[in-house]
Write a structure and sequence with these properties.
alpha+beta
């Protein structure tokens, strides 16, 4: 699940953005009662830190990095639920089915098997031209032939988040669609191979970005490679071309390269991984083979 990384240009914009974010946290769906005070305060502080560009600390990453096994196990369970729910929904993904039908069923299963109050985030289901929109939200558009379908979603378990993206093609797909799928998959696998404690996040981003650029699609990969996971869906550190962070053992990260072509469609492939001293462990078990549905 990728995020909008637009930054305010001046102090006035920072204040406006902060007030808007604070209002969102306090006055969101269900109101203040939906948040524990310490969770709300953590969100407020994260907003302040993010908007001012001050990297004071990253509590979730620090906690996990310190070896809190229970937190990692909770994320693993969230990932297992995500894999299970996707497998159950997969037979529904057919030509003629509405995007929001798939999204609604995923949310239902995430809340059935995981935390009952919410899934990790509102699922992204984008078909055809919508697949080329990284932040697409599901609509009543029906999946058509010769299209790519991007499904980005995740379960939440004991408050901890999972995040997985898979892309499938429909019968009648083009060779260009298949080409960009394999380029994205190769970029993801190449970057995963480079992950281990001590490596810079920027270096990992460069592995994927360089592969996509060498294939001629660099300008169509316009977001960071991934982010840390924990009690929030987006946490520091992040895989990006401007990151100054380095990986530590037990960090839980997403790896999600993508290519988005307006007239062809989009591809994004995402897994959650746990950093180890000499490599990483990929948590997701859902297949990444090029899959065609009818």
């Amino acid at each position: 699940h990728i995020e909008n990384t637009a930054q305010p240009d001046n102090f006035g914009d920072i204040i406006d953005a902060f007030v808007g974010s604070l209002s969102k946290f306090i006055g969101g769906v269900g109101g203040y009662g939906d948040f524990e005070p310490i969770t709300l305060w953590g969100q407020v502080m994260a907003t302040i830190v993010g908007l001012l560009g001050i990297a004071l600390f990253a509590v979730p990453a620090g906690i996990i990095g310190a070896g809190f096994v229970e937190e990692i196990e909770a994320i693993k369970t969230a990932v297992e639920i995500t894999d299970t729910a996707f497998a159950e929904v997969f037979p529904m993904i057919k030509i003629g089915v509405e995007e929001q039908t798939i999204s609604n069923q995923l949310s239902f299963l995430y809340r059935k098997y995981g935390d009952s109050d919410a899934d990790a985030f509102a699922p992204i289901v984008g078909s055809g031209p919508h697949s080329a929109m990284p932040h697409a939200r599901p609509t009543d558009r029906k999946i058509g032939p010769g299209e790519l379908v991007v499904i980005d979603s995740g379960a939440k378990y004991a408050g901890y988040h999972a995040d997985m993206t898979r892309t499938v093609a429909t019968k009648g797909y083009s060779e260009k669609q298949k080409e960009i799928y394999h380029i994205v998959l190769e970029a993801q696998l190449k970057s995963i191979e480079g992950i281990k404690a001590g490596v810079s996040c920027k270096e990992i981003d460069t592995l994927a970005r360089g592969h996509i650029s060498n294939a001629g699609y660099g300008k169509y990969f316009d977001h960071g490679l991934g982010h840390s996971l924990g009690l929030e869906i987006h946490e520091n550190p992040r895989f990006s071309k401007v990151s100054t962070d380095h990986l530590k053992s037990n960090y839980v990260m997403t790896v999600e390269p993508g290519i988005y072509l307006e007239d062809v469609g989009g591809v994004r492939i995402e897994d959650d991984i746990v950093v180890t001293d000499d490599s990483c462990i990929v948590l997701n078990q859902t297949s990444k083979d090029f899959t065609v549905i009818s």
